[in-house]
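B., you asked whether I could sanity-check this one before it goes into the benchmark set. Here's the sequence:
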Amino acid sequence: MTVVDCRRCPRLVAWREEVGRTRRAAFATEQYWARPVPSMGDPQARIVVLGLAPAAHGANRTGRMFCGDRSGDFLFEALHRTGLSAQPRNRERSTPVQLRSTWITAPVRCAPPDNKPLPQERDRCLPWTAHELAAMEDVRVVVCLGAYAWDAALRLRTVLGHTPPRPRPRFAHGAEAPLEPWPLLGTYHPSQHNTFTGRLTPAMLDAVLLRARELAGV
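And here's what the prediction gave me:
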């Protein structure tokens, strides 16, 4: 079974499919993906960007990470400015995107109600990402988009057999945790709540991505 066929979480399956049936008025004529969303990017990536979960009318609609919503626009504009994406937009699944040594993924692959996965849903889904990271030998840094991703990255290390760090590194925008096999960088999530209020600005996100490039040597 591949990740796009997964039905391990009944609540998430019901929600993603209900959203795909009812749709938002602006996308009423579109066929929603309404399945788990696979990772995307360069399999030999040195930088991993870890989000939260697909947006109901973004990635759950398009079938591509950070594709088709304003959070994705904000992230991809930053990736483009910092030389990690050849394109400044990721609007449709059919549009080619070329990422430079960057892999985009999430600890939860199905759109959750209210953007809030349950702990057991996260734990059922984490092995998909852990399996990917175990096979990616070139990863040098993980950029965590928000506190949820930061926590998930620490859990991923445990799933992969690494000893939990003591004391546990705390999330903050610009935080760095020099862990093995890859350090963590923290940034606020590019959600509209953060970007519309100015809590996360383009310059703030650019600075974290440029630091990721420095640590990764790309």
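One thing to flag: Helices lie at 10-22, 59-62, 70-81, 119-135, 147-159, 192-196, 202-216. Otherwise nothing jumped out at me.
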